[in-house]
Amino acid sequence: MDDMSHLESRPSAEPARSGLGVEALKRDIIDNLTCLQGCYPAIATPHYWYMTLAFSVRDRMMARRVATAHAYVARDAKVACDVGGIPDRAAAWQ
To answer: Is residue 48 part of a domain?
Structure first.
């Protein structure tokens, strides 16, 4: 994979960090490989690919967690656990 053209940014309707589509995930994996791991596909070891995939999955999980927390706060929902480890929900969003 000596051709680096796949690293060019392409416009998409989905955000790269939290999009659930195949193209968004591909973009995020390449972004995480180059930006977080400091590597590029031609020399990436299986460990680099594993960690890159883990970071990409984590990005999506965190985006959903934040969206859920915002929804609970907006509805003033009563929950049986704290939001983000902060007892006062109002202080969590300041």
So the answer is: yes
Domain count, the chain: 1
Q: How far is CA 21 from CA 12, 16, 28, 46, 60, in A?
A: 10, 9, 11, 23, 11
pLDDT in tens, 3-49: 555 555 555 677 777 788 889 899 999 999 999 999 999 999 999 99
pLDDT digits (tens, 9 = 90+) for 60-70: 999 899 988 88
Does residue 8 fall inside a structural domain?
A: no
Q: Are 23 and 14 in contact (CB under 8 A)?
A: yes
**What is the domain range of residue 20?**
13-92
